[in-house]
Amino acid sequence: AKDTRCGVRVYQPEDDHDTARRLALMAGLRVAVESGTLTVVYQPKVDPATGRPLGAEALVRWQHDGRPVPPDEFIPLAERARLIGPLTWHVLDTALGECATWRGLGHPLSVAVNLSPDMLTDPGLTGRIEQALHRHDLPAGALTLEITENAIMADPTGARRTLDALHGLGVKLSIDDFGTGHSSLGRLAHLPIHEVKIDKSFVRHIVTDRTRRAVTDAALQLARALDLTVVAEGVEEQDELDYLREHGCDAIQGYLISKPIPPLEFLTWLEKTRTGG
Ligand code: C2E
Ligand code: CA
Ligand code: CA
Ligand code: CA
């Protein structure tokens, strides 16, 4: 309900409704974060050439009044309500626990956790991550942090300090939603990053749209030149996978392989890939 005329915001009855919903969601989210009722699902990343599992992305889920609320709706609320810190620590701790389970069963996987822009300026970040890894008896290389390019470009100097510290710890850093932001490839090249993740909006049209294919090709070339890993997200079709594999993409993630799934289902999926089923 956004209607502005001559810079004056005109009152709309649905504004009250939107605001009421946002407030109700924020209150519910606070309870969920504090009571630890948020859950985490896992989406596999696999080698496009062999189908071998490489790791998984942890994605948070929230049921409010018996209905799932999409992360694209509640993550921005969590950021505004200063709940993103506790939410992230919950996801990180849960995901590291799962990762330790996989590795204990003989699957040498890594787990990726999304980091909101605000977290990059938290001076306690690196120390707390180090403690969490230690608690789960995991090497730092088992954790990948996904950070959007916009988060980095919002405060390149501050971000740089944090990224250097995380890199020093041995955590892998991934540029999420690659291609959707406004960063120059040259600036990214100077950061201690390990991986770029091509956004699904590019992957979706890779076979049909020359422009978006060009972005993907450029990312793949840059990555090769810089020794970075390239992950493609949102792979839904076999011809997308074929294209990506033929052009040197290192890992793919998407509904073609699996939707994000709860931990037990993920374990079943893992066992199936081991037996080649
Ligand atoms: P993202 O980090 O870009 O995550 C990828 C999103 O694409 C996920 O949506 C995933 O379910 C979806 N996806 C995966 N494969 C496919 C596919 O083949 N087709 C399509 N159409 N979609 C696919 P999800 O789980 O709804 O998350 C949306 C966004 O919310 C994430 O985008 C991320 O920015 C944010 N988010 C999710 N979990 C967390 C979290 O724990 N912490 C933070 N800070 N943000 C999170
Ligand atoms: Ca992500
Ligand atoms: Ca994305
Ligand atoms: Ca995102």
Secondary-structure blueprint of this entry?
Layout: E1 4-5, E2 8-9, H1 13-35, E3 39-46, E4 53-64, E5 67-69, H2 71-80, H3 84-104, E6 110-114, H4 125-135, E7 143-148, H5 149-154, H6 156-169, E8 172-178, H7 185-189, E9 195-198, H8 200-203, H9 210-226, E10 229-232, H10 238-246, E11 251-252, H11 263-274
Parallel strand pairs: 4-6, 6-7, 7-8, 8-9, 9-10, 10-11
Antiparallel strand pairs: 1-2, 3-4, 4-5
One calcium ion (CA) binds next to strand 8.
In helices, the fraction of residues equals: 40-55%
Care to count the β-strands? Answer: 11
Distance from first to last alpha carbon: 50 Å
**Could you give a short account of the major beta sheet?**
9 strands, mixed
The coarse overall form would be globular
Bound molecules: ligand C2E, calcium ion
The parts where pLDDT drops under 50 for at least 5 residues are none
Mean pLDDT comes to 90
Count of helical stretches: 11
Task: Explain how this protein is built.
By secondary structure, the protein is α/β, with parallel strands linked by helices. The protein is 48% helix and 20% strand. The strands form two sheets. Strands 3, 4, 5, 6, 7, 8, 9, 10 and 11 form a nine-stranded mixed beta sheet that branches. A hairpin with a 2-residue loop joins strand 4 (53-64) and strand 5 (67-69). Residues 177, 199-200, 233 line the site of one calcium ion.
Summary of the model, kept short:
48% of the residues lie in helices and 20% in strands.
